[in-house]
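Two quick folds needed for the group meeting slides. Do the first one here.
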Amino acid sequence: MDKLKIIDKIHKCLRLSESGNPNEAAAALRQAQALMRKYEINEEDVRTSEIQEASAHSGGYFNPPYWAVALSELIAQAFECRAYISRKDDERPVFRFIGVDCSAIVGAYSFTVLYRQLRRSRRRYMDELGIDDNCERLRQGNVFAQAWLFRIAKTVAEFIANPKNEQAIDAYVKANYGETMDFERDPADPESKDYDVILCGMRAANTVQLRRSVSRAESNKSIIEECA
C-alpha cells in the first residue's frame, strides 16, 4: 500500500480516537497504533504529512526591509507556523509560510492584509512629514513602522506554539529545503526626537486585532479585525 495512503488512514483513525464514544475512540487509537507498527511509521512521519505551505509577495522589495521581516515573524509566532524568505535567481523574493494544517494559509493571508495596512500607514505618515531630506523621511518612516509592530506584538503574546508542530516543521523544512540561512536587516535606531513618531506608529496600529479561530471549521474565516 502507498505510504501516503497509509498515513491518510492513520489520520482518519486518530481523528476517530477523539470521539466522545470511549469504545470507538479506543478501537480507533489501537488501529492507528497497529498501522504505525506494521508499516514502521512514526509520529513524526504522521505530523510531517500535515505540513502545508503558502506564500505572500514581498511588496516589490528586492531586499525586504526590517519591518516587513519582523511582521512575518510576528505572524508566524501567532499562527504556529514558520516564515522564510524565498528567492530564485534575480526574481523578487516571496515570504513563504510553512505550518500544520491550515496555519500556513492563515499566516500568509494575515501577513498580506497586515503588510498592506502597515505599508499604507507608513506611506501616509511619510507623505505628511513635509521633510525634503529623503534619508530622514525614510528613517522616520521606519521608526514609525517599528512602533506599529511593537503595538501589534502585544496582540500575539497570548499565542503559544505547539512543540510538536515545531518539530514537524523542522523535519519538513530540512527534508525539502535543507539548511536555511537567517535573513537579517538592521532596524532603524530611534532618536530622542522621535517620541512623536513612535506615538503615531503605535496609535496607527490600535485598530488592528488578531484572533485565533476556535475550530477548523472556522479556519477560512477572517482572522484579522479592523475596528471602525
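Then this one, please, same format:
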Amino acid sequence: MDTEITDVTNDIVLMRVVGTKANHGNVTCISLDDGLVFIDTGKDARATSKFRSKMEARFKKKPIFVLLTHTHWDHIFGMEVFSDVPIISSDAGVEAIRKELDGELSKEGRQKVIKQIRESLKEEGRTPSEAHKQFFDDLTNVTITVPSIGVKGEIEFGSEGRRYKYWSIGGHSDCSSVVFCEKEKVLITGDNLVAEHAANSPCMLAGFKPEAIEILESFEQMDVDTFIPGHGPVVGPEYVVKSTEWFSKMFSFLSDLKSKGVPSEKAVSDPALPEFFENATPRDYEHILEFWYNAV
C-alpha cells in the first residue's frame, strides 16, 4: 500500500492512499499554534498511524482533536490511532456510529458482512482478492468508538488571524460536515466532492443525490482557492464548476428521459448522454446511471 503526502499549505497536509482499488478516504492534518487537528481517520489504521507520526515529527506537536467529515467506514477505520484525543462529529454522526455499533459493526454484524461478501463473490465465480482479505481482517479487528463530542450547527477553532469553521452540511450523508480554513482559502469537503472517480468505488458516484448539486453550488460561492475532496487529489474552483455543470446536465437529461417513459435499460445507454467530465469513465458506469435514473 502506497501513500501520497501533499503540502496543501505550510500548515495543511493531505495524506492519500494510492495505487489500490479499495475505497480509502483522505486524511488531512492542520497544524495550529497549540497542536495538530486531523480531519478524518481513513480506512487503514496503519497508514494513518504513520501519517500521524510524520506530522508529529514535522511540526513538533501532538494532536489535540479529530474532526470527522462523516462516519462512513472508509473515513473512520483509523479511529483507534487517535484514542488519546477527543473525536468530534456532527450530532448525526454520533447517532450513526452508535447505531452501527449495534448493527453492522457489532461482532455478529461484522461476521455477517464478511459472509455476505464471500457469498456474493462465490455467486460471481470469483475468489476473495488480497484486498478483500485485508478488508475482512480490518473489519474483524478494527476498534470503533462513539465520537466524544457531537456538534449541532457549527463550531470554530484556531487562533486570532487563523480561524477555522466546522459545520454540518448534509448531502452525501445525513452526518456530512465540512471544514473551512478561512485564511488559507481551503475547504475540506468530505465526500460531497470527490476527484478521480475512476480510482474509487462506484458507490462514490451512486451515492450522489440530485439535491447535492445545491451543495456544490454553495461551494462555488465560497471564497475558496483549494478544495480537499473526500477522495482524490486537491482540486481548484474550476473542478467544482465542471462537476456542478456535469451533474446538473446528467440529472436533467435522465429526468427528461424518465418523464418520456424511456425504460432505464435504454436510458443508461442513450448515445446523447452527457460525456463524463473526467478523462476516465468510472467502473460500473451503467449501474451508476441506473441508480440515478431511479432517483430522479
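Slide caption for protein two: The mean pLDDT is 93.
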